[in-house]
Design a protein that fits this description.
- About 35% of the residues lie in helices and about 25% in strands.
- It is α/β, with parallel strands linked by helices.
- It is elongated and about 65 Å long.
Length: about 250
């Protein structure tokens, strides 16, 4: 029997298994689909990006809400079926491409996706990390553990902190594994994304900020000077200590 390798983890799949080569689980539960689209608050003038369109469970309802829908899918079978069933929809663009090779729109867009769980973090980086990203808001169905980690008060990952300097991430709800085919082995959740009105780090400072955070997270319990020692000279650190002391005195006296 021939084997087909998993696109991302090199797992071998026997012929006849569900077409889930990138960790994608197709959603079929109509009430859940409606709730996801409602949560996304898509407006008539919006451009919506869907990553991992599958057979179009989210795609087709989204075309009724948005001005334009860009559906990205890599699997040939899914792409062909989606094209056949949506040929009458003029506001739908189907893109056959590896998600991680796709470049998001250069104009403001909304993301609504049930993504392949095997590449959750790379997809989030694709959407949230680049300085030029035009993402406004969105909702993403993902593995529950990832959604918890991305929204936790305790941040252990520099990339997650960088995202949250620019976007509000919110854990919206659990999603039952029984609304998917095939059912995933892990629990799922819905994560919402909302761009902050004012970014906490200026675009030109994102690179230095990320370097600082990466240094700090190596030993999160160490004094703040540990993270700064490779960025500032000893005289600069001395001045920072002095300024920090003055600031603390002002706060305690107010």
């Amino acid at each position: 029997m021939t084997k087909k390798k998993h696109r991302y983890s090199n797992k071998k799949l026997s012929r006849g298994e569900p077409p889930n080569f990138s960790g994608q689980h197709l959603m079929h539960h109509v009430p859940t689909i409606r709730e996801i689209i409602r949560q996304a608050s898509v407006q008539q003038g919006d451009t919506v990006l869907e990553l991992g369109a599958g057979t179009g469970a989210l795609t087709i309802p989204l075309t009724k809400k948005a001005q334009r829908v860009i559906a990205v899918e890599y699997d040939d079978t899914f792409v062909q079926k989606l094209k056949e069933e949506t040929a009458h929809l003029p506001n739908l663009q189907i893109v056959k491409q590896d998600i991680l090779q796709f470049r998001p729109p250069k104009k403001p867009f909304v993301v609504v996706s049930n993504i392949p769980y095997a590449i959750t973090t790379p997809i989030m980086n694709l959407l949230l990390a680049p300085q030029a990203t035009q993402l406004k808001k969105g909702v993403i169905v993902m593995e529950k553990g990832a959604a918890k980690r991305f929204t936790s008060r305790m941040i252990k990952d520099a990339d997650v902190l960088l995202w949250r300097m620019r976007f509000n991430l919110r854990y919206e709800r659990d999603i039952s594994r029984h609304v998917f085919s095939p059912p995933p082995r892990v629990d799922s959740a819905l994560l919402s994304i909302q761009r902050k009105q004012k970014e906490l780090v200026a675009p030109g400072q994102l690179g230095p900020f990320l370097g600082l955070v990466q240094e700090a997270l190596r030993q999160p319990m160490a004094p703040y000077e540990y993270a700064l020692r490779r960025i500032f000279t000893p005289p600069q650190l001395k001045m920072l200590r002095k300024k920090r002391g003055c600031l603390l005195l002002r706060q305690s006296g107010s």
